[in-house]
Design brief:
mainly alpha; Ammonium transporter fold; 0% strand; globular; transmembrane helix; Ammonium transporter; transport
């Protein structure tokens, strides 16, 4: 927020040149400067509160992941998957504090890894406050929660604990440094889905998932109620995940007027997120009806989440109508990925790799095709090289960004 300023000479020209008027003008300007400082402090407090509230919403997604995982597995494995979700948050908090945040955002550094703020040393800094750490920690444990669903029902507890700690403290922070730090070089990523993909490939399918001839034998989750509850909690949390990524709210965009600024872009982001998920859910509903001949609430929930995963990359830089297109295509990407998964005997109880890997990859391509120049310049002002639209965007950068997490 811009500071309010005045000078004694400004007031003198209005009040006259008498000596007593000069003193009054100086006094008024002194008070005016104090009020201006309070406005700046208030703006910082509002932005900090907005960021903390967004962090709380993203953290609430852990409950959504826990419910979704619990409902998607068989009853005998419920307690185990719930324990892994709790430990994702607990171990993630410790390891992200010790190493993760430093690897992700320690600056000055290089384009690969950060090297400052270990254990939040020298914190808070001119660049980061504690609220920012909390927000990024919530993102990191969300990535671990997504991965836990991919390898559910076949993982030794001790091995998973090591894996989760390593993912939150090292693997995910490196990727987030590439994409989100000031020293990074890429523009979007899908590390969580790819981590789940590799985990499920290494462990192989669950016993009984495919028969001795390779025919698919679905292992249905035990509670559709928990799946729906988890989906709605994730939907709620996504409003912190996407709109919250602006990090602040009190920022005016150029000369557009006091009615238009960051708060408008945040509202638009919430709308595009909603429309993409809604479009994907309905497309999945009718698409699966055509292909399978029945309605399935789990498929609809996964389609909804696939739409959210796809729009996340470009949620702030596309128009609402484009979000509907994004969700429509994301639903068919998810259906296609699930068909391929069955063909190649890939077993992911939550379809996490298909959702966050497949739909996430479409989201990156979608952003390169549909991003609007005006929105990109407003939101990423001062950061050149950001793509908007297929004719103007650096599509090769989006392509590289899509596949780098696959190998990492």
């Amino acid at each position: 927020m811009a500071a309010l300023t005045c000078s004694a000479s400004d007031l003198q020209s209005l009040l006259g040149g008498a000596a007593n008027v000069t003193g009054a003008a100086e006094y008024i300007c002194t008070r005016f400067a104090a009020v201006s400082d309070h406005f700046v402090d208030t703006a910082y407090a509002v932005d900090s509160t907005y960021l903390l509230f967004s962090a709380y919403l993203v953290f609430a997604m852990q409950l959504g992941f826990a419910m979704l995982c619990a409902g998607s597995v068989r009853a005998k494995n419920t307690m185990n998957i719930m324990l892994t979700n709790v430990l994702d948050a607990a171990t993630g908090g410790l390891f992200y504090y010790l190493f993760g945040f430093a690897f992700a955002f320690g600056s000055p550094s290089n384009g690969f890894i950060g090297r400052q703020f270990f254990g939040l040393e020298s914190f808070p800094s001119p660049s980061f406050d504690y609220g920012y750490f909390l927000y990024q920690w919530a993102f990191a444990i969300a990535a671990a929660g997504i991965t836990s669903g991919s390898i559910a029902e076949r993982t030794q507890f001790a091995s998973y604990l090591i894996y989760s700690s390593f993912l939150t403290g090292f693997v995910y922070p490196i990727v987030s440094h590439w994409f989100w730090s000031a020293d990074g070089w890429a523009s979007a990523g899908r590390a969580d889905g790819i981590a789940g993909l590799w985990g499920a490939l290494i462990e192989g399918p669950r016993m009984g998932r495919f028969d001795h001839e390779g025919k698919s034998m679905p292992l249905r989750g035990h509670s559709g109620t928990l799946v729906v509850l988890g989906t709605f909690l994730l939907w709620f949390g996504w409003y912190g995940f996407n709109p919250g990524s602006f990090l602040n709210i009190l920022r005016v965009y150029g000369d557009a007027g006091s009615y238009y600024g960051q708060w408008s872009a945040i509202g638009r982001t919430a709308v595009t997120t909603t429309l993409a998920g809604s479009s994907a859910a309905l497309t999945t509903l009718f698409g699966k009806r055509m292909l399978a001949g029945h309605w399935n609430v789990t498929d609809v929930c996964n389609g909804l989440l696939g739409g959210f995963a796809a729009i996340t990359s470009g949620c702030s830089v596309v128009d609402p109508w484009a979000a509907i297109v994004c969700g429509f295509v994301a639903a068919w990407v998810l259906i296609g990925c699930n068909k391929l998964a069955e063909k190649f005997h890939y077993d992911d109880p939550l379809e996490a790799a298909q959702l966050h890997g497949g739909c996430g990859a479409w989201g990156i391509i979608f952003t390169a095709l549909f991003a609007k120049e005006t929105y990109v310049n407003e939101i990423y002002s001062g950061r050149p090289g950001r793509p908007y639209g297929t004719a103007h965007g650096r599509w090769w950068k989006a392509l590289v960004s899509t596949h780098c997490p696959d190998f990492w």
